[in-house]
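Summary for the steering committee. One of the milestones for this cycle was to obtain a three-dimensional model of the protein with flavin-adenine dinucleotide bound, which we needed before selecting residues for the alanine scan. The sequence and ligand used are listed below.
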Amino acid sequence: MQDCDVIVIGAGMAGASIATELAARQARVIVLEMEDAPGRHTTGRSAALFSEIYGNAVIRALTRASRPRLAEGFMTPRDCLHIASAEQLERLEAYAALPDVAGASRRVSAAEAIALCPILRPDYVAGALAELNAYDIDVDALHQAYLRQIRSLGGAVICDARLERAERTDGVWTVTAGGAAYRAPILVNAAGAWGDVVAALAGVAPLGLAPKRRTIAIVPAPKDGRCDDSPFVVDVDEQFYFKAEAGRIMISPADETPSDPCDAAPDELDVAIAIDRAQAAADLPVTRVLSSWAGLRTFAPDRTPVLGFDAAAAGFFWCVGQGGYGIQTAPAMGGLGAALVLGAAPPAGLEDLDPALLSPARFG
Ligand SMILES: Cc1cc2nc3c(=O)[nH]c(=O)nc-3n(C[C@H](O)[C@H](O)[C@H](O)COP(=O)(O)OP(=O)(O)OC[C@H]3O[C@@H](n4cnc5c(N)ncnc54)[C@H](O)[C@@H]3O)c2cc1C
């Protein structure tokens, strides 16, 4: 039996970031991960974008607050173009008018968009928003840095430790995982797509988390060099996106296919849709698919992350529902999550964010 202050279930970006912030605040932390290594699921499968104008207002606030930590060597600049066809111009204008979107982007003409990304088709693009401060995130470096920091602060990350059962008696959770037992007064659920499954194993009511599959295909970039270094191009209705990198282009149909929690695999039809949508917007000859993968983006019913103690289960803390934003929001989610677990003041940059917006209590 190992005792600690907080047990965290899941060593993806969510579990790693909140565990780091807990350990940094002197909590004794044990992270339990069911796979043989952290990052096998959604964290290892992202598009690695940092965009302060992506997602709803709460996500945008969490993203802005995450920037200082990510800027400590985990990001490289990447232009981001949010493009619209003629039919989408009205929605582009509405989006561009949101105050924080307006402050972080510049409305550009179709000609300017094509100058920034020469493979865009003049007969498709009618206008765009150029984001001023978008980045590629080095996801693996960030994740590994968190995991190292947990250990250097005296915490433990234990793999091959699938939570089997969690029971609370006399104010203490006893957790059985990977054939061993652990005890702590606080249990953090950072199990990604398995969030509701983990809750059920602890006898806690589910939130209705919805894992949704998203696909990515990698294709060779055209050899003429026109998009050796393209911006991240995303359709304003998020119907597809692509970016070029090192002679390759990453394309996604921005699919959201409902899924059970699982080791997600790409569907050939989604790969075909990705290529089709990107080719409608850009002159992008695709001769073959070099690789493809899929991952589960898991959403709460209102598509805002869930961070807070369960109202009905003492000592059970939710850190789930990061959807498609769990990398770019991880520093803020980790810092705020640790503050909420320990009853401390919110970290810098998050003083004005009402924790009730993230609390599981909002679901009644
Ligand atoms: C295609 C795609 C593109 C994306 N692009 C971006 C992007 O550009 N920018 C961005 O910010 N985000 C992006 N995301 C979203 C981001 O990747 C996720 O929000 C984030 O990785 C979620 O992290 P997590 O730790 O919650 O989940 P996970 O990484 O899935 O971690 C959960 C962990 O819990 C473990 N676990 C589950 N059940 C148990 C159990 N019973 N016992 C022990 N361990 C358990 C799992 O093994 C897993 O390791 C993208 C996602 C996808 C799929």
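Key point for the committee: The chain is about 25% helix and 30% strand.
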